[in-house]
Amino acid sequence: MELQLFGRALGIIGPEALQRAELSRRLRAIQPAPGIVGFDGHDQTPALLSEPQHGAQRSGVNDLRAHTAGVNYIAIDRFEGRYLISGGAEASIKLWDLAHSESPQQQYIHRPAAVVKRSPSSHQYGITHLCFYPFDSLAFISSSFDHKLKVYATETMTASATFDLDSIVYSHTLSPIADHLLVACATQHSAVRLVDLRSGASAHSLAGHQRAVLSVAWSPHEEYILASGSSDGTARLWDIRRSANSLGVLDLEDSVGIVGEDGLGKNVRHRDHGKAHTDAVNGVVWTDDGQYLVTAGHDERVRVWSMSTGANALSHFGPIIKNTHLSTLLPLLVPSHTLESGKQIMFYPNQTEILMFDLFDGTLLQRLRLPGGNTVQENFRSRTTSLAWKAGDAALYSAHSDGAIRTWLPKTAEDVRAEEREAEGADGEEDQGRKRKREALEDIFRDLTRQKITFT
């Protein structure tokens, strides 16, 4: 850090580059947010605790649950980063206001600002996926195990449109850049379903997978390009403008890619065979520049793909990756514009922990441990189901099958100074203990030397 500050003082490094370098450094020391106790879904009145909680009191407030039957998914609006929506296994949807006290002496309990409970007009089974409108946070879309896709108004929390897709909807996505309002849906059916919010039609399908589609994601730079992952082990790319929509599949054995006759894509032929994973693909995510695609599979591997050639980038994340549940499991990629140039950080929801990796070289940067997880039953109950990123505060939010929503923040300069003071205090106490022991030994030695000893 001193080198960056020196470069900034000389004018070699700009303020934005310095800010990126600082955030990259702080993210390596991300920790549970000290001021946020938890999310309590049983009351709708936010609470400030005047006294910090410790010991048994702290344990009690840490048992707060946002949803009684578990949290399946969370999402944060892209504009203000103020509102978070969560979907529960009990079919409820809750809206949370993330604005809270900035005083480090006070601890805050989030309470829902609005709730959609299970009813004949809402979802009947557990929520599978949620997303805000990319252009307007006043609306969001939800999907469920009840085969329904619903559009909600955020202000009133009422459904303005409902689409019955006749099969379980595992995930859905709306393009962040496109003029069209096509919602791509990953369902129990083998075809990707497209729902047009303008016309209300949901008949268009993209056929190519052989089994259920588990994850879909629109390209952040090409409005008609879509990626999907299926339980047949394939990851496909689609151009919805083409009559033969599929652009081909990704092959885990191909580290070169398809470059065409001249190496620049001339007369390139699309690959129709190959698998991205040896088991189901239940996570598909683009980097924000659209140059790479990240996939996660039940073979307990995460792979990175170059989208210029379709080549496997051969990033290796080691044997600690866990992924066994059928539900969609999406790695979270920190926006690259907030990091040092050429850097990309990935958070991976790994059962009872969250793993932080360098995306390109696979280096494990941090392991965020969750409470519990000592038995198989505890692992299932506290499994991490979803991650969300709040750009303004550089905050990470995690949802869990035990019903909790947790907040993680990078260490601040104040946190570092507090740790240094604690370390100095501990060192001082250790020195005092050593001094007392040394004095006691000296007294014993002095008493022994004063005694007259005779030998017979």
Structural account:
The chain is of the alpha+beta class and 456 residues long. The chain contains 5 helices and 30 strands. It has helices at 2-10, 15-27, 55-61, 376-381, 413-450, and strands at 31-32, 36-39, 47-49, 71-76, 83-88, 93-97, 107-110, 112-116, 127-132, 139-144, 148-153, 158-164, 169-174, 182-187, 192-196, 204-206, 213-218, 225-230, 235-239, 246-249, 281-286, 292-297, 301-306, 332-333, 345-350, 353-358, 364-369, 384-390, 395-400, 405-409. The strands form 8 sheets. It has a 4-stranded antiparallel sheet, with no helix packed on it. A 4-stranded antiparallel sheet has the order 4-5-6-8, with no helix packed on it. A hairpin with a 2-residue loop joins strand 25 and strand 26 (353-358). The longest helix has 38 residues, at 413-450. The protein is globular. The termini are far apart.
Summarize the structure.
By secondary structure, this protein is an alpha+beta fold. Helices cover 16% and strands 34% of the residues.
Tally of strands: 30
What percent of residues adopt helix (DSSP H or I)? 10-25%
Beta percentage is: 25-35%
Name the average pLDDT.
Answer: 82
Major sheet summary line? 4 strands, antiparallel
Which structural class is indicated by helix and strand composition? alpha+beta
Number of helices: 5
Radius of gyration: 26 Å
Overall geometry comes to globular
Order of adjacent strands in the largest pleated sheet: 1-30-29-28
Which stretches of 5+ consecutive residues score pLDDT under 50? Answer: 50-60, 260-267
Termini separation: 72 Å
